[in-house]
Amino acid sequence: MSNIKEQTINKLKTELKTKSIGQVIKYYPTISSTNEEARRVAELGAIEGTVVFADMQSGGRGRRNRVWESPVGGIWLTIILRPKIAPVHAPIITLLTGIAGVNTISKTTNLNSTLKWPNDIRINGKKVCGILTELTAEHDKVSYILVGLGFNVNNKISDFTKDLRSKVTTLSKELKYMVDRNQFIRQFFEEFENLYFKFIQDPERIIPKILKTWCQASDTIGRTVRVETINETIIGLAARLDRDGALIIKTINSKENRIIAGDCIYLEQ
Ligand code: BTN
């Protein structure tokens, strides 16, 4: 007999209106990391849209291999994608995931959230979601892309380590009630699939629209920031995104710096 959580996942699948995203869900009460499990099943041939979902992660990972705290009550999942796109376009998937996240939060809770380059969703300046996109390519061809999402939903702030508590928020903390996680996930899969299908059908046409929508929902553009990359630290104005989703920083001498990956710290509120 299936347990309660499996029944919940089955209900989610029955009510889901997507063609591919979430039509196969691999559910785990506890797992080390959904991204690691998704990599394993992707290597074994899992189809596009397969989702690995866990109630808790014991070894959740964030960007730059940081620890991602994943207590019970949150939504920790990874989507496996097999798009026929150039690897250089992969960062656009992080941007469209962020847009799908913001739209989902607004439609299911009415809360306003913002995007912080490259991969955060925030509410009132506090992180509510992180996105970890990992690309595996061979000979300039995408084999698969893993989109890992960590949403703080009904998890408790007191379950986070002390130094994180002032930097993060959860949907239920903002709303003062518990959120229907199933409804939230369903909405997210539908928002995501809609944007993703448009993107893979005609990347060149849709990329400018994604960039524009992302910038409108972002609180990064127009700010003075410090960006720390593996090699350097740059301070300047976050001017715009370029076609590949890289952040363009204008320094005091008006030089434009193109940042593909890094941490972005706001220097003013
Ligand atoms: C970040 O902001 O640094 C990205 C965090 C991504 C966390 C999610 S939770 C589900 C998936 N599995 C992981 O181990 N990480 C991602």
Describe it for me?
With 269 residues, the protein is an alpha+beta fold. Helices cover 31% and strands 29% of the residues. The chain has six helices and twelve strands. The chain has helices at 4-15, 34-43, 90-109, 171-175, 181-201, 203-217, and strands spanning 25-31, 51-57, 75-81, 114-116, 120-123, 126-138, 141-151, 224-228, 233-241, 247-250, 256-259, 263-266. The strands form two sheets. It has a seven-stranded mixed sheet with strand order 1-2-3-7-6-5-4, with helices on both faces. β10 (247-250) and β11 form a beta hairpin. The protein is globular, with a radius of gyration of 18 Å. The model has no long low-confidence stretch (mean pLDDT 95).
Characterize the quaternary organization of these chains. Answer: single chain
Given helix and strand content, the structural type is alpha+beta
Number of helices, counting only DSSP H or I runs of 4 residues or more: 6
Percentage of residues in helical conformation:
25-40%
Please give a quick description of this structure.
The chain is α+β, with helices and mostly antiparallel strands.
Describe the secondary-structure layout.
Elements: H1 4-15, E1 25-31, H2 34-43, E2 51-57, E3 75-81, H3 90-109, E4 114-116, E5 120-123, E6 126-138, E7 141-151, H4 171-175, H5 181-201, H6 203-217, E8 224-228, E9 233-241, E10 247-250, E11 256-259, E12 263-266
Parallel strand pairs: 1-2
Antiparallel strand pairs: 2-3, 3-7, 4-5, 5-6, 6-7, 8-9, 8-12, 9-10, 10-11
Helix pairs in contact: 1-5, 3-5, 3-6, 5-6
This protein binds biotin.
Biotin binds next to α2, β3, β6 and β7.
